[in-house]
Amino acid sequence: MKARIFQKPKNAMQSGRAGTERWILEFAPAEARKPDPLMGWAGSGDTRRQIRLGFATQKEAVAYADRNGIDADVVAPPVRKLKIQAYADNFR
Fold first, then answer.
1. Which CATH code is given to the segment(s) 2-91?
2. Alpha-carbon distance 64 to 22, whole Å?
3. Fewer CB atoms < 10 Å away: N or C end of the chain?
4. What is the tens place of the pLDDT at every residue in 13-52?
5. d(C-alpha 56, C-alpha 58), whole Å
6. Predicted model pTM
7. CB-based contacts of 25, cutoff 8 Å, min separation 6
C-alpha cells in the first residue's frame, strides 16, 4: 500500500488557519477512475481512496504507517513567507 503524509494547507479563500496543524495520511489510488456505463459518474472499485486519517503530529502518522506496513511518503509543509506590511504602505 502506498500513502502520503502531509499537512493540510490553509484555505486560500479565508484568512483563518483552523485545521492546518493536523497531519493527514491519505492512500494513493490503486486504480484509475472510469465512467459508470449507466449514469456516467466517475468511480472505481478502490475503497481506500475514501479513507483519510488525521494525526496530531507527524511522528504519530509515521509510527502508524510503520506499525501497519504502509509505505508512506512524508510531504514537508511549504515554508511560510510573511509579508509584513503596514496600512500606511498603501499610500507610498
1. 3.30.160
2. 15
3. C
4. 888 888 788 999 999 988 888 898 888 898 888 888 889 9
5. 7
6. 0.76
7. 3, 4, 5, 52, 53, 54, 55, 61, 64, 65, 70, 72
- d(CA 50, CA 26) in angstroms, rounded, equals 9
Digit-coded pLDDT (tens) for 62-86: 999 999 999 999 999 888 888 888 9
> Each residue of 47-83: b (16+ CB within 10 Å) or e?
eebeeebebeeeeebbebbeeeebebeeeeeeeeeee
Grid cell of 27 as nine digits: 492512500
Which distant-in-sequence residues (6+ apart) come within 8 Å of 49 by Cβ? 27, 29, 30
